[in-house]
Amino acid sequence: MNILLLGKNGQLGWELQRALAPLGEVVALDQDRADFAQPETLVPLLDQLQPGLIVNAAAHTAVDKAESEPELSQRINADAVAELARWAAQHRVWLIHYSTDYVFDGSAAGWYSEEDASNPLSVYGRTKLAGEQALAASGCHHLTLRTSWVYASRGKNFARTMLQLAASRESLSVVADQWGAPTSAELLADVTALCLYRLRQEGEGAGHLSGLYHLVAAGETNWCDYARFVLQQAQQRGTQLKVGPEQVKAISTAEYPTPAQRPLNSRLATDKLRQAFGLTLPDWRYHAARQIDELLGS
Ligand SMILES: NC(=O)c1ccc[n+]([C@@H]2O[C@H](COP(=O)([O-])OP(=O)(O)OC[C@H]3O[C@@H](n4cnc5c(N)ncnc54)[C@H](OP(=O)(O)O)[C@@H]3O)[C@@H](O)[C@H]2O)c1
Best substitution site from 4, 6, 29, 31 to test ligand 1's pocket, by max atoms within 8 Å of Cβ? Predict the structure, then answer.
């Protein structure tokens, strides 16, 4: 199958390049070839490439920056997705897309299901929700996979930042009242490939699987405990730190103001995906510990 992967150099796009390879020929593009800031250019590109499947890992993910560039965010996260979806519907091609826990306001007490009402607090959340809605309205067969707190070993990431700060600073304060599950791009890419394999096995009858799913690692934590976990893992591997896990100070979101407001509760229930695709999602610590091995080269 001819698979078109968009956003190939992002955290998830990079892992998808690897994970999709056994499923067919992957044409992977970056924003130089497929610019989501110019949504009107996407349909001519799709006409030219004629993909048999589209996987979209491109997004405007700079959550704080989006507050000051809402139009760009809207074009990339919503209008461009609408164009992809329109083409996919016309050509009866599956479109795989990713969304975010930031579509919720975080005021619920437990885990959010796919049916729970969305109410984004930020430009990023609003434009990602608009992208989801355009996709659903297009009528194309799709998987919209909502995830949270995505990290990868490549590039900038939370674990690397915590390790650097704990090695160089005298103190470290991290927000402890935002709850969710750190989810590795590796897990997201692997699960995507398994879902696609299932769609392929079901062939023409796979339409019943089309829809919105939550896809995050199992378990829950907050950013402060996640930071402590990272430092603990590093110490166990012999890394010397100025700030140890027990010295990380827990602070509230109110003490760490950012341009974009984040939900305090980002817990996403994954029952729908696990049941529909027969998958087990590992606890968040599994991939988080592997990442420390990769970062420390152990
Ligand atoms: N990161 C998170 O914590 C998080 C949480 C929940 C959901 N998600 C969702 O998960 C998906 C993958 O996120 P990620 O963490 O892999 O994001 P990422 O690392 O920021 O990657 C985003 C990708 O989008 C590309 N992009 C940006 N502007 C573009 C444009 N104008 N045209 C085409 N491509 C453009 C980037 O290209 P360049 O590399 O060239 O900039 C990059 O390849 C997204 O849908 C995101 O909304 C992410």
Answer: 31
* Residue 11 DSSP SS3: helix
Q: Is 250 left (phi over 0), alpha (psi -120 to 50) or beta?
A: beta
Give the tokens for residue 106: 């975080």
Cα-to-centroid distance, 194 and ligand 1 (Å):
21
The backbone region for 234, taken as left when phi is positive above 0, alpha when psi lies in -120 to 50, beta otherwise, is alpha
- Decide yes or no: CATH 3.40.50.720 for domain 2-150+182-218+267-281: yes
**Is the shortest distance between the CB of 31 and ligand 1 below 6 Å?**
yes
CB of 13 closer than 6 angstroms to any ligand 1 atom:
yes
Strands (E), 49-133: 53-56, 94-100
**Sequence spans of domains, the chain:** 2-150+182-218+267-281
Ordered per-residue pLDDT tens for the chain, 298 residues: 799 999 999 999 999 999 999 999 999 999 999 999 999 999 999 999 999 999 999 999 999 999 999 999 999 999 999 999 999 999 999 999 999 999 999 999 999 999 999 999 999 999 999 999 999 999 999 999 999 999 998 878 899 999 999 999 999 999 999 999 999 999 999 999 999 999 999 999 999 999 999 999 999 999 999 999 999 999 999 999 999 999 999 999 999 999 999 999 999 999 999 999 999 999 999 999 999 999 998 6
User: Does residue 124 carry a catalytic annotation?
Assistant: yes
Q: Among the options 98, 102, 112, 124, which is catalytic? A: 124
